[in-house]
Amino acid sequence: MSSPLHPEVDCAILAEAMGPTNPGLGSAAPPEPVRAARLLAAGNAVATRLDTWLERWFPRELNPLAQLGPAANVMLLLATFSGVFLLIWYSPSTQSAWSSLADLGPHSLGGLMRSIHRYASDLLMLLVLAHALRTLLARKFSDARWLAWVSGIALVGLIWFIGWTGYWLVWDVRAQLLALDTIRLVDVLPLFGEPMLRLFTADHTVPSLLFFVVFFLHMVLPLGIAGGLCLHLARLSRSPLLPNWRLAVWLIGTIIVAALIYPAVNAEPAHLTVKPDNLRMDWWYLWPLTITARLSGGGIWLATLLATAGLMTVPWWLARARPRAIYQATVNISRCFACTLCSHDCPFGAITMVPRTDGKPFPSQAQIDADRCIGCGVCAGACDTQGIGLAWFDAQQVTRELENLIVTAVARGTPTALALVCAQADGGWELFAAATWQQRLPGYLVRPIPCVGWIEPKLIERLISKGATAILMVGCGSSEPFCREGNQWLPARLNGTREPAFRPQRADPRKMAQINFDPGQPHLLTAAAIALREQTTRHKIPRPSHGRVGLMALGLSGLLLTALLVVSDAPFKNPAPAAAEFIFSFRAYGEWVSGAALALPNPALDQRPVHMRTAQPTQRTRWPVIVQLTIDGQRQEKIFPPKGLKSDGASVGELRILLTPGPHQVTVQLLTQPKRETAGKIWSALINARSRHLTVLTLEANRGFEFAP
Length: 709
What we know:
By secondary structure, the protein is α/β, with parallel strands linked by helices. 39% of the residues lie in helices and 15% in strands. A 4-stranded parallel β-sheet has the order 7-6-8-9, with helices on both faces.
């Protein structure tokens, strides 16, 4: 594959004619981008072993761990479409929401859509959490990647909140618990003039409008995921939105199987006067109930803010602050001849071509976007003239060093085999275990490199032409490589399908090989290295038959279904106290406080409009409402001041009293003026308190007492 911008002459000669080498390049390796690098590398090694184990059975495009983000998008689409289709049967109201879903047969079309909607949402949460964990272990959150991390955490929170509102819409006992905890959270904020929790003491007081608002949020908020994804992928090049179609079909089929064998059903209908005890719930979305049920509204906010701040700021407290100049790529403009290959190969879109500034007869020159570059070094492998690369690992200096090693060895009569190993295979430059790699690659001179994508084919040509007996290039085996596309571009360059291409007429291609390291089978790398050095035939790893692949796919689907369903329908014990309670919730107006009238001015001198020529009271305030609660002869009293800036609104409040099970004589009296001898509104009855039940008495200004035993 040739290009007019790549003449057959040696590009090094062309580059030297264009301009000199930058002086002083090359320095010590920059510090690791993150703290706790060894711990994260150990976790990433476990994930890589799982990757390579799966890929003994499946190609990478069918490995779910290699497609976590795109696979999550498939589940997002499936949950969205099934949710929209479910609207054919669903009725969004407190009176009919539960029955509209309960009446669906588990294997009817509506029931199937309901189960698919639930399990697709559950698998979506599983995939995004796994994706976040892999990103963390792979250290892909530091430096320029902070935007992807922060937007990703925001997307996880948004997906969870959408699922939280979705369970509210079922209006069963699970919805009852999360509604109560949510309203306690909302009441802490100064959004409403009156506490909303008092509206959730009895079934007849729940506002239908609020239920519709939750339904509206559940329908509209998924649109925000699209905007969040645009931000999440803004600094990545060629990031796939959807996985291989076979993997998509596999995942969708798994969800359909789950819907058929274990249909999603309602819990018991919500009754706000009953405290649920043991129930089953979806821990993928409802796990906060284990915490919120034990905290006050302020405590919930504090826990939420601390957790959010901790996750959002990972790129600052877990990552190291590194000056950009010590790790980012640099451009030697005098050696750039506008081939544009570096801008095409950059995995992060950090290189753009801008108008020429040095007067040379080329249309453009490369320019680094410092807000995007992570210092992966892939651009160096795309540049034949070594006009772009890493200052601390300068390609020209490294080339001269390696050439001198080969020439010296040949002069001594001991030809050398060279292994260029991606440092990320060990978790980074500081963790690279040179002695271990020397044991894995006997007879080779091992040299770590930032990424196999850093290798330019011309380097291989020159080393072989200088007398190297073998050049082995070892890439990391992770499906979440730190440098993203290095393992993809190097093989394409070596087989001639991507520029700059390896030229077999200049070096014997039998003396080179590129292998991705499988930490679960290090002996395979050793065997391949020996075969390359001794120029013997390498043993090819047999691929499993289609039948074995199918059995493995079934087994993996079974594991996925088990994990999904066990967490999706797990037991939960409500931590709320089992004691019986009496609740009195009211909204009432106190009497107006009398005030002296203002004196009217002389009518002859009054210039105000006619409708304003009346006496006005000096003040418009109300008396507080006094509630006297008597239970079995024991009286308690509480004063509730009026609401409003001028204390001219209603008095709103709630009293909660724990009761022992059994009969109790209860009397409630409201006094709306200071004269206590004047009887106010009175309610009295003999009630029967029951464990885990609420006895609720409500009073609204426009209605009388309403009792919910």
